[in-house]
């Protein structure tokens, strides 16, 4: 799937380049209960994101890449869906320096080596 | 394909057994450095998905400039046949509730606003250097020394497994601060990639928790 290259990307967002919140590229997004009737009313790009979010646990960047929706547009569309309680933004605002989390990452990586 | 490409057009490749759920946490590390220093290779060595190259921020014009720059190098030196156009990233699922993302930076100064964006919320960064072409990574070292609060280390990627320059010389040539760790690695090797990433995270812990003698993160 790929966004229509002939449509300027931000037409899809009503010209907005910033969402209600600024999602980071690695922010995880989760489904909030799939609603088929709601999905049918969405534009194709928002619908692709909405459906993907309900299928897998992925980051904003993964959703953008998989759905072929530019990152900036993806951020705005996901923020809209979250504002309508259609999806959930996970662990937003968590500290990147949380020693407990970093310790778990180090342990997990060492198991991979 | 204008905006982005997925390495697997056949469909989703969710991690086995992982369903969207609350309580999941993601951690991001940034892999920086100039063109052809092995950023994608490092990501590839450890990612459970093929590195996703996304042209998320790209314009067609910038893409053309990249192609020209590559051509201008005449393919000499690195023997690099593909170019990271914008950013690429990989993913490592470490536990059912914990995912590590590795984001490679776009290689050129023109993309610095994107570096700021990528580095926001990052837990650490690795600047990869090729000891035969240190100059291509100068800009990345400068960025993390001067323009970012993200704790970083420098890793000399040993192409062909040979250490062409002693690390002391590399440190001197890069004018690295004494408190920036400098390690060597083989970006193709999984264990070596793991070592680089755990050292990066260890350095972040040192800097941010005062676990050892590391200095406090610079207040900017």
Compact overview of the structure:
Chain A is mainly alpha-helical. Chain A contains five helices and three strands.
Task: Give your account of this protein's structure.
The complex is a heterodimer of chains A (113) and B (220). Chain A is mainly alpha-helical and 113 residues long. Helices cover 47% and strands 8% of the residues of chain A. Chain A is built from 5 helices and 3 strands. Chain A has helices at residues 36-41, 44-55, 60-67, 71-83, 99-112; strands spanning 28-31, 58-59, 87-89. Chain A has a 3-stranded antiparallel β-sheet with strand order 2-1-3. The radius of gyration of chain A is 16 Å and the shape is elongated. The termini of chain A are far apart. By secondary structure, chain B is α/β, with parallel strands linked by helices. In chain B, strand 3 and strand 4 form a beta hairpin. The longest helix of chain B is centred in the last third of the chain and has 20 residues, at 190-209. Mean pLDDT of chain B is 76; it is low at 1-20, 56-85 and 213-220. Classes of the chains: A mainly alpha (113), B alpha/beta (220). The interface between A and B is large, with 49 and 54 residues.
């Amino acid at each position: 799937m790929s966004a229509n290259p002939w449509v300027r990307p931000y037409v899809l967002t009503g010209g907005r380049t910033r969402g209600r919140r600024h999602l980071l590229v690695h922010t995880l997004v989760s489904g909030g209960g799939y609603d088929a009737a709601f999905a049918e009313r969405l534009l194709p790009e928002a619908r692709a994101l909405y459906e993907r979010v309900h299928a897998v646990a992925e980051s904003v960047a993964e959703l953008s890449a998989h759905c072929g929706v530019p990152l900036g547009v993806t951020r705005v569309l996901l923020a809209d869906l979250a504002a309508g309680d259609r999806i959930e933004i996970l662990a937003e605002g968590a500290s990147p320096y949380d020693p407990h989390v970093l310790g778990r990452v180090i342990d997990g990586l060492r198991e991979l080596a | 394909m204008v905006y982005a490409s997925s390495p697997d057009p056949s469909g989703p490749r969710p991690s086995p057994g992982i369903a969207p759920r609350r309580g999941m946490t993601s951690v991001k590390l940034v892999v920086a450095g100039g063109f052809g220093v092995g950023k994608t290779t490092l990501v590839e060595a450890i990612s459970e998905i093929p590195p996703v190259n996304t042209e998320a921020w790209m314009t067609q014009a910038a893409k053309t400039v990249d192609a020209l720059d590559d051509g201008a190098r005449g393919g000499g030196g690195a023997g690099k046949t593909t170019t990271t156009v914008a950013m690429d990233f990989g993913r490592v699922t470490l536990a059912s509730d914990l995912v590590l993302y590795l984001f490679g930076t776009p290689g050129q100064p023109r993309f610095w606003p994107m570096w700021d964006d990528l580095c926001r919320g990052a837990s650490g960064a690795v600047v990869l250097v090729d000891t035969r072409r240190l100059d291509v990574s100068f800009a990345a070292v400068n960025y993390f020394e001067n323009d970012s609060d993200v704790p970083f280390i420098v890793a000399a990627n040993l192409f062909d497994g040979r250490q062409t320059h002693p690390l002391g010389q590399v440190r001197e040539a890069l004018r690295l601060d004494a408190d920036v760790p400098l390690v060597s690695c083989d970006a193709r090797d999984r264990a070596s990639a793991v070592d680089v990433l755990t050292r990066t995270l260890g350095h972040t812990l040192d800097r941010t928790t005062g676990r050892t003698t590391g200095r406090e993160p610079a207040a900017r």
